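Title: Prediction job returns without error message
Component: structure pipeline
Severity: low
Priority: P3
Assignee: unassigned

Description:
Job completed but the reporter wants confirmation the result is attached to the right record. Sequence as submitted:
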Amino acid sequence: MLIPIRDHNPSSQRPYVTYALLAANVVVFALYFPLFADEYALSRFFLEWGMLPARLTYGEGYATLISHQFLHGDLLHLGANMLFLWIFGDNMEEIWGHWKFLIFYLVCGLAAAGLQYATEPASMIPMVGASGAIAGVLGGYFLFYPRARVDMFLFLIIIFRVIPVPAWLVLGSWFVFQLLGGLSTPADAGGVAYWAHAGGFIAGVILCVPLWLRMGGRGFWARCAGQPPHAEAQYRFVKSDIPKAGRKSRFRPSPWRR
């Protein structure tokens, strides 16, 4: 298992919008966390505030195109999304500026929901999660900083390592995985909303192209070879002493998409 834990691309300003989005997602999750004790109540909540394609087809629930972006199916879902936003959000906020980045983020979330809706407009499975919007952030990062180094935590039974990998490989392989997942997963299945992830990523790249061109396009890459245009962050790589897990976890597919 490879998990991104940080990049070597520090921003030169405080990413206030990224911080606000992180806080908003955590606070919203905390507010409805008691519902996890009642599966029926939680399902009703997601049906009301998650993005339900059939409901949109019927002509209602348009507010859920935004609200679903701040809901998560469990702590792992929340943690994974916030990790990606934490790693890559600050650089995209620096590129766009604070308020434009917020608009960019939400529009990518809308595009993600749009592609997921297009794959199955009659679906009764609600979609929740910030994944689509964050996928847009990944798409923009992929365009601007393809050679920025991203530290990946390697977990292989008893082997623990931190390996620096170029962003184009990390994010490009992630995008390909979403496409393959979308093509191989039935449209009416629950679980991962692969097409939402792919749609958000594509939207992020497309929305960033005009800005990238104004910054010089290929000239921008030539000036910094696709790497951050400033001194990269340096970390000390140390072997982890994390112990091996002692028991297996039980998994049950969720009745919603994430």
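Comment from assignee: result matches the submitted record. The mean pLDDT is 87.
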